[in-house]
Amino acid sequence: MNQISAIGLPFMKMHGLGNDFVVVDERGITPRVDASIAIAMADRHRGIGFDQLAVLSDAADADVHLTFWNSDGSQSAACGNATRCIARWMMDQSGQDALAITTDRGALQAVDVNGLASINMGQPQLDWADVPLAREMDTLELPIDGAPTATGMGNPHCTFFVDDAEAVDLAQRGAEIEHHPLYPQRTNVQFAQIIGPDHIRMRVWERGVGITLASGSSSCATAVAAARRGLTGRKVQIDLDGGTLHIDWRDDVVWMTGPTAHVFDGVWHG
């Protein structure tokens, strides 16, 4: 019997617009989560089930450091909805109305906005090498059928602008584009329909996960791409399958605001 089976691994289940997470607090203890644990916990039939797993650890220069695992055991430097969920929970626990957070993406800020968690997701990465792409090119319109836009938000994104987001075969197209050779680290894929100058309907395929009801970093990337292409302003409402996020691209820094839910606590025995 392994150590986790013997004593259990406490966790929290959270979601932001149905984009769901397992959250493990490793502050002050020896790290226990690895790729094999992430894969086992992600199994929706034999485990707990999640889109991403987030691990809290101590940070010398911030309130917390966050590490993100995808359901296939790969890691991601950013996960906007999980960051919002954790920030809301930490603010509720501490009574603070602002937090400093570090991730592999870099330093982020979280603030309370009328009971919602708003996250500074940092600067979008617009150069081909930073996304990253496989070779030098203009990120505004890629040489892929549909001329999508590439954006980095600590993880790579590929945004298609379509007439009808509902009509897209998300499972087929998302899987194809995730592994496109222009994206050496694979990519998140979005299909976005412009409703108005400040309103977007968007559906998401997440790298290492598949179809999700929502994605924070994907929403930020889509808002940036739409503004760069002159399709919207820099402050937009994005309607996802799971609900609505508000994105505000200010002075090259992207803020994301929306609801969160802390669903339950449990103990994983493996």
Describe what this molecule looks like in 3D:
With 270 residues, the protein is an alpha+beta fold. It folds into two domains: 130 residues, Diaminopimelate Epimerase, Chain A, domain 1 (Roll), CATH 3.10.310; 103 residues, Diaminopimelate Epimerase, Chain A, domain 1. It has five helices and 17 strands. The protein has a 17-stranded mixed β-sheet that branches. Strand 6 and strand 7 form a beta hairpin. 44% of the residues are buried.
Can you give me a brief rundown of this structure?
With 270 residues, the protein is an alpha+beta fold. The protein is 19% helix and 40% strand.
Radius of gyration: 18 Å
CATH architecture group name of the largest domain: Roll
Please give the domain count.
2
Helix and strand composition category: alpha+beta
Number of strands: 17
Low-confidence region ranges: none
Gap from first CA to last CA: 10 Å
Shape field: globular
**Number of contiguous helices:** 5
List the helices and strands and how they pair.
Blueprint: H1 3-7, E1 9-16, E2 19-25, H2 35-42, E3 52-57, E4 64-70, E5 75-76, H3 80-94, E6 98-103, E7 106-113, E8 116-120, E9 149-152, E10 156-161, H4 170-178, E11 188-196, E12 199-206, E13 210-212, H5 216-228, E14 235-240, E15 243-250, E16 253-258, E17 261-268
Parallel strand pairs: 2-3, 4-6, 10-11, 12-14
Antiparallel strand pairs: 1-2, 1-17, 3-4, 4-5, 6-7, 7-8, 8-16, 9-10, 11-12, 12-13, 14-15, 15-16
